[in-house]
Amino acid sequence: GDSVTQMEGPVTLSEEAFLTINCTYTATGYPSLFWYVQYPGEGLQLLLKATKADDKGSNKGFEATYRKETTSFHLEKGSVQVSDSAVYFCALSLASGGSYIPTFGRGTSLIVHP
Amino acid sequence: NAGVTQTPKFQVLKTGQSMTLQCAQDMNHNSMYWYRQDPGMGLRLIYYSASEGTTDKGEVPNGYNVSRLNKREFSLRLESAAPSQTSVYFCASLVGLQWGDEQFFGPGTRLTVL
């Protein structure tokens, strides 16, 4: 079946450090790829997405590139802030019988210290 | 435009009690989903509704039932709550018209079963 694997956390960084969170996927078709972010006590919200190979999604200084050849969608940010502390979820979405069934990774907790 | 709303925000039940979690969206989305989130497990799909009038089981449907009351509302019922159902429950919606659409999440319901 379809699956998403992302690095386990927590990832602990100092402010202004470079961030990478790895995400790889297995899919039976050609998926759309997403990163969602969850702040403490809240629901998930879309951070960025990409729908075809070599597309780069970007938002709030975060970036991820859809790499079909390596089935990856790694999240990066050049300089993290304390306010980026949250849980990050990688996800894919495929159409199945007229439905869209997203598959999520287990989430990676990011803690940024001042 | 409230997005996805969930009620209640918190609930404590005793084993064997029943309750219904309510979810509504005002974005005219076709698809709606119920997830549970447990530490280290990420998001697990309980049930989904691809369109008004249809519902399907997800990964962990046992112990739950759902109703797609109309296009806006999708409720989740626990007929006889068990401690294993202690979790945070999220409702989500998606336009469902094209590949690449993202999900919109509610703020969650935090349920404790004693």
Characterize the structure shown:
The complex is a heterodimer of chains A (114) and B (114). Chain A has strands spanning 3-6, 11-14, 19-21, 23-26, 32-38, 44-50, 56-59, 62-65, 75-77, 86-96, 99-104, 108-113. Chain A is an all-beta fold. Chain A is globular and about 45 Å long. The model of chain A has no long low-confidence stretch (mean pLDDT 94). Chain B has 114 residues and is mainly beta. In chain B, strands 2, 4, 5, 6, 9, 10 and 11 form a seven-stranded mixed sheet that branches. Chains A and B meet through strand 5, strand 6, strand 10 and strand 11 of A and strand 5, strand 9 and strand 10 of B.
Helix fraction bin of chain A: under 10%
Number of DSSP helical runs of chain A = 0
- Profile the largest sheet of chain A: 6 strands, mixed
Number of strands of chain A: 12
- Which stretches of chain B are low in confidence, meaning pLDDT under 50 for 5 or more residues running? none
Separation of the first and last Cα atoms of chain A: 41 Å
Q: How many strand segments of chain B?
A: 11
Could you give a short account of the major beta sheet of chain B?
A: 7 strands, mixed
Note the beta-strand portion of chain A. over 45%
**Structural class label of chain A:** mainly beta
Q: What is the helix/strand order of chain B?
A: EEEEEEEEEEE
Helix-strand layout with pairing:
The complex is a heterodimer of chains A (114) and B (114).
Chain A: E1 3-6, E2 11-14, E3 19-21, E4 23-26, E5 32-38, E6 44-50, E7 56-59, E8 62-65, E9 75-77, E10 86-96, E11 99-104, E12 108-113
Chain B: E1 4-7, E2 10-13, E3 19-25, E4 31-38, E5 42-49, E6 56-57, E7 64-68, E8 74-78, E9 87-94, E10 104-105, E11 109-113
Give a summary of the structure in a few sentences:
The complex is a heterodimer of chains A (114) and B (114). Helices cover 0% and strands 55% of the residues of chain A. Chain A is an all-beta fold and 114 residues long.
